Structure formats: structure tokens, C-alpha cells
Amino acid sequence: MRRPDPALLVVMGGISAALHVGKLAPALPVLSGTLGVTLVQGGFLLSLVQLAGMTLGLVVGLAADGLGLKRTMIGGLLVLSGASLLGGWARDPWSLMLLRAAEGLGFLLASMPAPSLIRRLVDPARMNTTLGLWGAYMPFGTALALLCGPLVIALVGWPGWWWLLAALSAGMAIWLGLALPADAMASPASTAAATRGWQQRLRRTLSVPGPWLVAFSFAVYSAQWLAVIGFLPTVYSQAGLGAALASAATALAAAVNMIGNIASGRLLQGGGRPERLLYLGFVAMGLGGFVAFAPIWQGVDPTIAAGLRYTAVLMFSMIGGLIPGTLFSLAVRLAPDEHTVSTTVGWMQQCSSLGQFAGPPLVAWVAARSGGWQWSWLVTGGCAIAGLGLASFTGRLLSRKALAWPTGGGRQPK
Known about the structure:
The chain is mainly α. Helix content is 80%, strand content 0%. Helix 1 packs across helix 9, helix 4 packs antiparallel against helix 18 (341-370) and helix 8 packs antiparallel against helix 14. The termini are far apart. Residues 404-414 have low confidence and may be disordered.
């Protein structure tokens, strides 16, 4: 029997972790009724899973080479499993918030080492394509959670949904432990070297502009994407859609993000310029957010307006998906050297988590202040404009460094 592709197993592990990020959105209407979760508390529940990444991403990135990339990912899945198991017994919003923060630590440990693991497990000719596939782990996991969550919750309640995902993550941790090759773990000599050199790796990573650009770009992308996708079930529920239909519509909106992620890897592999993909993604998100939420549809047939708004959400997510796949490839290539890839990805994860932490509560606050979702486009539009500026700086950096974007794997000299 043929063994599964180790890089594909890493992607599956990421999907298992992403399910925990996406599991909350379909449960929010139920949690509002059973635990009294308010709209703003719901925003924080959506974003608290990013607290660990926001505060510890760089630290975990520095430590991953010493701890072992495989060991770090498996440990993260086990933390997710334990926190989700306990979360099923939460009986008030504050307990659930505390356990969401613990899940955030597990998510960080499970997702942060993956790009470095993929870099080790695939040959250079496959790296862009595989990293583009990895970039789809979050929308795939989110879409799967949005699609399955209402069905599971209807059958066994929201605690059963938490416990099911706890069992899934535990099973995935065991599978990775058995299936990943041993050389994916650090040797004692490399562990000692990584421990001694963490200050030097930190200084090298943060003293060049590349890691900062990819990190801030991911922050402004993730802030708007999670805010829109996370609140869509609530938006549609308030508009009168049934829970199953609202979650299915949101699941599709999350799933199409995978198209952009996978396409980015293929386009980069074919020689596409990364800054152009970033431009396209941020323009689509800015326009999509405006069309979806701005009060511009007065006098238009409600059915037609709803269809156009939803199409804008799909474009927002699908073309915006070019951004994360491109940024994962940039993070690997713009790291100062091969020993700082995990640190660069950790810094990108930290800033991404900051964006995901800030985005949903900000959108919820704007909605609460304005009495509806019609001004949400101001938040998404501001993030898109910032992303365009960062993409411009990234293009200038790539031109100055004369970094080729070949179909085969690493940097090429001038």
C-alpha cells in the first residue's frame, strides 16, 4: 500500500487545526441563546483563538527548530484537542473565552511549523505549488466547519460539536506521529545549535524588511477575511435566512478562498510576479467588501440585490485567496537565510493573529454603533488600501534584490 504524501499530511493537520477556528461561527446563534453571548462577546470569541499567535508567534517560531517541527505540530494538535474537550463543558461566555485562548495556543503550535516542514519534505520544484496548497488549509477547514457545524449541532448540541473536533485533532496528531518521516524532527546537535543561536536568528529576521512586509500584509488580509466570513452566519440569520442555509452560504464563501490559494501557487510557479497577485487580491477584497455591505442598493429588487451582494462576497474571498498563498511563498523566500524560515513564518503568524484578533471586534463595534452592517466596508476597505501600499513596497524590494521567481526552487543570483 502506498504511503500518503507527508506534505499532504501536514496540510491535513493544518485543516484539523483550522476546524477549531471555524467551529465557532455556526455555533454563535446557539451560544447567544444558551450562554447569553452578546454580539461584541461573539466578536471576541471569534478572535481570542488568535491571542497566542498575537503574543507568542515570534517566540514559537524561534523555538520550533529547537523543539522539532514535527513535535511542535503534534503538540499543538493535542493542546487543541484538550481545550476543545474542556470547552464542551463551558457554561458561561467567560469560561469559553478562556478556553478559546488555550485553543489559540494549540492552533499556533499546529500551524506555525507547517511551511518549514513542507519546505523540508518537498523538492524545490514543488515548493510554490505545495505552499499554495497549504495556504488553502484555513478556508478549507473553515468551510468544512461551517458546512458540518449546523448539522452536528442540531444532532448533538454545540458541546458535542466541540467534543467531535477534539477527537478528530487527537486522531490527526497520532497519524502525523506515525507517518511523518523521522528526519522531519531536529537532531540533538541542531537542537543545541538552534537554542544557542536564537538571539542571532531573531536579530537577522527583524533587521531586514522582507519579514516585516509579509507579516503586515498578512495582518491586513486576515483581519478583514475572518471578520467577514466569521460574521456571515449572523448577518444572514438576522436577514431571515435559516441556520442551515446561512451556514451553507458562508461555507461556500469560505471554500472559494481555496481557489485563489491554489491558483497563486501555480501562477508563481509559472513565473507570475508576487506583487501583482497581491495587488489583484487586495483590490478584489476592497471592492467586494464595498459592494457587499455599502448601502447602495436602494430601489433595486431585493432578490437581485441579495444575489449581487453575495456574488461580491464570493469574489472578496476567492480572489482575495491569492494573498495568503503568495505570502507563504514570499515568507520562505524573503527569510534572511534557511535558518530563519521558522522565525519569519512565526513573525508572519504573529501579525496575522493580531489582524484576526482586531478585525472581528472592530467590525462588530461598527455594526453595533451604526445599527447594522452597512458600514462594515469601511473596515475592509481600509485594510485593502493598507495592503496595496504594502504590496507596492514588496514589489520594490523584490526588484531591488533582483529576486527571480523561477519554476524551480530558491533564490537565483543576479
